[in-house]
Automatic annotation (TrEMBL):
Keywords: Membrane, Transmembrane, Transmembrane helix
Name of protein: Fatty acid desaturase domain-containing protein
Record field: transmembrane: 88-112, 132-149, 161-181
Domain Fatty acid desaturase: start-end pairs: 7-254
Pfam families: FA_desaturase
GO molecular function, one term: oxidoreductase activity
Length: 292
């Protein structure tokens, strides 16, 4: 329960990063820094990489995260683990540790020519103008970690695990799941630079249904297409915007109402790699496959 509510808090911090929380950039950044640091997310570091995800969605070369591999580069791992026990293990590791692994080691992120880490101000993800803010984000994480350490010393480690550790793991798991399912679906294409453009990428996203949790998550689950079209829009307008864009986008609007636990299983099974479209004119359009 706390995990779900904290995921809602996470969503507000994400919105601060899009300058969608208030009219004042400093207020957005202050609230975002406090909320995200509390959830051990480096606020500015992720704000910048997340913005780049929004500018490059669906691009095989430049999207920041959930970038699928071509068939030729699929690892031995995918081959031997795409069976029920392997999938349970992969999903468990992805949901429990995927978020920190992405932040620290760029796991499932785009290709960089050297080691990429969200905590490293001098890493390849950031430019000179951003480096100071990456340090500030690190300081936020450090301060919260120190506070947690003091709390553990005062109240005991098991108390901290129950009150903070487990809810945080639930937040991380939902976050990875929500974003994974928004950008991974058997009928969503990816594009290389010959075919990619911003609008095509923004429309290669999918709205999902989490039942009662839609509300708890401030509807980021079922309004993601609209979020990619209008990312500075606050979450409380996103449902209205989604209703308005549906009749305009018609078949270009993607929604899949499969329950999330079923969708997670199906996508993990079917979306293993991407390969070019069969049609000779569409060499830069890629679709998911799983036949290794
Ligand atoms: Zn976003």
């Amino acid at each position: 329960m706390q995990g779900c509510v904290l995921t809602g808090v996470w969503v507000i911090a994400h919105e601060c990063g899009h300058h969608a929380f208030s009219d004042y950039q400093w207020l957005d950044d202050t609230v975002g820094l406090v909320l995200h640091s509390f959830l051990l997310v480096p606020y500015f570091s992720w704000k910048y990489s997340h913005r780049r995800h929004h500018s490059n969605t669906g691009s095989l070369e430049r999207d920041e995260v959930f970038v699928p591999k071509p068939k030729s580069k699929v690892s031995w791992f995918s081959k031997y683990f795409n069976n029920p026990p392997g999938r349970v293990l992969t999903l468990a590791v992805t949901l429990l540790f995927g978020w920190p692994l992405y932040l620290a080691f760029n796991v499932s992120g785009r290709y960089y020519d050297r080691f990429a880490c969200h905590f490293d101000p001098y890493g390849p993800i950031y430019n000179d103008r951003e480096r100071l803010q990456i340090l500030i984000s690190d300081a936020g994480i450090f301060a919260v970690t120190y506070g947690l350490f003091r709390l553990a010393a005062a109240k005991g480690i098991s108390w901290l695990i129950c009150v903070y550790g487990v809810p945080l793991l639930i937040v991380n798991a939902f976050l990875v799941l929500i974003t994974y399912l928004q950008h991974t679906h058997p009928s969503l294409p990816h594009y290389d630079s010959s075919e990619w453009d911003w609008l095509r990428g923004a429309l290669a996203t999918c709205d999902r249904d989490y039942g009662v949790l839609n509300k708890v998550f401030h509807n980021i689950t079922d309004t993601h297409v609209a979020h990619h079209l209008f990312s500075t829009m606050p979450h409380y307008h996103a449902m209205e915007a989604t209703k308005a864009v549906k009749p305009v986008l018609k078949e270009y609007y993607q929604f899949d109402g499969t329950p999330f636990y079923k969708a997670m299983w199906r996508e993990a099974k079917e979306c293993v790699y991407v390969e070019p479209d069969e049609g000779s004119h569409n060499k830069g359009v890629f679709w998911y496959g799983n036949k290794i």
